[in-house]
Amino acid sequence: MSLAADPGTDAVEAMVPSVDVAPETQPVGWRHRHLLDVDGLSTSDLDLVMRTTDAMREVLTRPIAKVPALRGRQVTILFYEASTRTRVSFEVAAKNLSADVVNIAAASSSVTKGESLVDTVRTVEALGAHMLVIRHSVSGAPYLAAETFGGSVLNGGDGWHAHPTQALLDLYTMRERLGGSVAGRKIVILGDLLHSRVARSNIWTLTAAGADLWLCGPATLVRGFEAWAGRGAAAGRRFHVTTDVDEALRDADVVMALRIQRERMASGLLPSMREYAARYGLTRTRLAGAKPGALVMHPGPMNEGVEIAADVAAGAQSVITDQVTNGVAVRMALLYLLAGTHGSGGAGASST
Amino acid sequence: MSGRQIMTADEIRRATTRLSHEIVEKQAGTDGLMLIGIQRRGVPLARRIAASILEHEGVEVPVGALDITFYRDDLSLVAQQPIVKGTELPSGIDGRTIILVDDVLFTGRTIRAAMDALVDFGRPQAIRLAVLVDRGHRELPIRADHVGKNVPTSREESVRVHLEETDGADEVEIERLPVDVGAGTSAGEPVR
Question: What band does A82 get if pLDDT is binned at 50, 70 and 90?
Fold first, then answer.
């Protein structure tokens, strides 16, 4: 229960002034204006996101799955890279909170006429955006956007760097399925780690939550992670890197397969997709080495038959559709929490 | 705490029992009744009223919990988002008589938010309001159907309800607020 532990909760509540305010109306201690990565989130921040996500899950079960919390806020979704689930998930999340949603796909915008990122951000702000969800193929692009934008920026995935909402929805899904905590659980991330922003963000949250994390893939796709694992171990985080898929999967509680990112892949990293599938694909036979009932996850979109076999992806152990549903709830929680950190919705609050 | 006590544990117990009798009397029975406590202290109060109805009528009335955070009218004014405690309704509310239960009735804004939230869940036959303390100073045309204790207050005072379940002991206190209290707590008071 490392994340859900009471000390974290108490710490949040201890921070708030003990003047005459009922506990339910006290500030929550969420101080981040932007969500650019997960590495700035403390354990109590993570716990707060998880608890708020619980509340959003309940909202999703209502006959009218919509609450007026973000009424009058404009959420602009600016995606420079292809996406279905993340973009739609953010849109559904914002709409469930009654925000006004503006969608911009870079392919059909003035970006094709040469408009710079900074100019585009200024433009969407001038058009009334209070919150900006951005996905970009260049690592760090959301940080640049955050320097310009007056409201809150949420990183919807930047290059190889970070995908914070994915890591948070993965953590939520695992905690829910593993009885409330991932502490001490063996979690395997299998596949194309090199190009994976999902893996980089997950490494942070899962080790912070006390998981026994294993990264596994062909040597060409895990390079660089050994040094990181060494530093992580020095900081008391459990974090292993291996090229031996059977060792990685042995007695695992969770196996997360990552997509082979062909569009980012330089030639020579893999002999062929078929060779990769044969040596590292998550098949029923390989999964049999994990704990009975081990969870199967995939951030999507999947190359079925490459990093994951179709029968495993659709099998009883798969929680891949849970990941999608929880993604909406986690993004609702983050939009809600971030909306409180700037004064875009009215008088009173400062813009810092 | 440093306030002046205005209700003892015994007085809270008697008031809760009386509220339970009034609710059943007004409804001419318990058919279709559902008690919904407003987070946070309305919830244990609703459970106590249900327990009292069970004791005197032998009927178990369903109890729910309602979090009104997402329906607050001051969300865009507060500096930080309030903690969400969660909503849990035992069943659908269509056609039922809902008794909203809260600890203190003040501006009426919490109740406005609660009614907005409830109608998103369905169409109750009626919504009534039961509160432990009515301290006046309404800002909306809302009144309680059942009141444990009417307490005349000034706006510079605050009424605090402590309950065994949430605070370790039963007690209601009244206290004069320090003048500068608004500064650090803009996320707080407006709704209540």
Answer: confident
Query: CA dihedral in degrees (A301, A306, A309, A310; nearest 10)?
Result: 50
Mutation pick from A13, A24, A67, A330 vs chain B, by most beta carbons of B within 10 Å, is A24
A341 part of contact set with chain B, CB < 8 Å: yes
A94, two tokens: 């914002």
Residue boundaries of the structural domains of chain A: 29-163+326-339, 164-323
- Name the residue among A88, A70, A110 with its Cα closest to residue A344: A70
What does the pLDDT read at residue A8? Answer: 37
Q: What is the DSSP letter of B82?
A: B
The dotted CATH code for B4-191 is 3.40.50.2020
Whether residue A350 has pLDDT greater than 60: no
Crossing angle for the helix pair A197-208 and A225-234, to the nearest 10 degrees: 10
What does CATH list as the number for A164-323?
Answer: 3.40.50.1370
Percent of chain A with pLDDT over 70: 89
Out of B40, B67, B75, the one facing A55 most closely (by C-beta) is: B67
Q: What ipTM was estimated for this complex?
A: 0.84
CATH class given for the domain over A29-163+326-339: alpha beta
CA pair distance A3, A208, nearest whole angstrom: 9
